[in-house]
Amino acid sequence: MIKVQEQDFDVGGELAAMADGKTDIGAVVSFTGLVRDGGGSIRKMTLEHYPAMTEKRLAELEAAARKRWPLDEVLIIHRHGELSPGDRIVLVATASAHRQAAFEACNYLIDWLKTEAPFWKLEETQLGETWVDAHDGDAAAAARWK
Amino acid sequence: MKILYFAWLRQRIGVGAEDLNKPACVTTVGELVAYLIEDKSKAYATAFREMEAIRVAVNQEYVSFDRQIENGDEIAFFPPVTGG
C-alpha cells in the first residue's frame, strides 16, 4: 500500500494494522526516516514532489519487491510539504512469514525509493534556502540490489 | 505537450508547468531542451546550463535525452531526487 500525504503518521498503529487479523505473518520490519539536523541550523525542510510520478514509481517498487520476496504486506508512507527537524518523513514496512525476506525487502525498498521516487528536499537555515544534493552513496546502495 | 519543472529548475525558470505545441524541429527531449534554450523569454539557458545534473521523465517514466517525444506527452525536468 502506498500513501503520499502531508500529515504525520503513527508508526505503532500502522505496523499493528499490517498484521491485524492475520496469523501467517511471522515478521514485520520497518524503516522510519526523520528530518535530520546534524549542524543544528535547519529551521524547516520542505519536500516537493511530482505527484503523478511518485505514486507510479512507488507502486512499481512495491510490485518489484513482491516479485522478489514472499511478502504478505508492503506499506510505504511518504510525506510532503513543510517539515521540521525531528519530524517523520517516510515509513517503509514489510511483513512476511519469516524475517529474512522482510528485512531484505525493507532495505531494498528504501534504497530504491531514495534514488527513484521524485521528491526534492529544500532546507531553510538562517543563511537562506538550499536544495539538498543527491548522495552518490544512495545510488551505490540501490545498485547493489541489481 | 505539457512541460513540468521541479525544485531549482522550477525556481530558475519561474514556472512549474507550461503547455507548448511541439515545434516541427523538435523530435527528442534533447531537441526540446535546445529549442527552449533559444527562447529568451524565460531563464531556460541558465536553468539548463548544468545538463549533467538534470533528469527527465516522459509520461512519468525516467528516459534519456534521446527519447522521442509526441505532442501529447508530459515531459518533466528535475534535479536528482532526494526523498526518503
- The proportion of strand residues of chain A reads 25-35%
State which percent range the strand residues of chain B make up.
Answer: 15-25%
- Quick one: how many beta strands of chain B? 5
Number of helices of chain B: 3
Write the layout of secondary structure elements.
The complex is a heterodimer of chains A (146) and B (84).
Chain A: E1 2-5, H1 11-19, E2 27-34, E3 44-49, H2 51-68, E4 71-79, E5 81-83, E6 88-96, H3 99-116, E7 119-125, E8 128-131, H4 136-143
Parallel strand pairs in A: 1-4
Antiparallel strand pairs in A: 2-6, 3-5, 3-7, 4-6, 7-8
Helix pairs in contact in A: 2-3, 3-4
Chain B: E1 2-5, H1 7-13, E2 17-19, H2 29-38, H3 44-47, E3 55-58, E4 61-63, E5 74-78
Parallel strand pairs in B: 1-5
Antiparallel strand pairs in B: 1-2, 3-4, 3-5
Question: How would you sum up this structure, described in words?
Answer:
The complex is a heterodimer of chains A (146) and B (84). Chain A has 146 residues and is α+β, with helices and mostly antiparallel strands. Chain A has 4 helices and 8 strands, in the order E-H-E-E-H-E-E-E-H-E-E-H. Chain A has a single domain (2-143), classed as Molybdopterin biosynthesis MoaE subunit (Aldehyde Oxidoreductase, domain 3, Alpha-Beta Complex). In chain A, 31% of the residues are buried. Chain B is of the alpha+beta class and 84 residues long. Chain B has one domain: Ubiquitin-like (UB roll). Chain B is built from 3 helices and 5 strands. Chain B has helices spanning 7-13, 29-38, 44-47, and strands spanning 2-5, 17-19, 55-58, 61-63, 74-78. Chain B has a 5-stranded mixed sheet with strand order 2-1-5-3-4. The interface between A and B is medium-sized, with 28 and 18 residues.
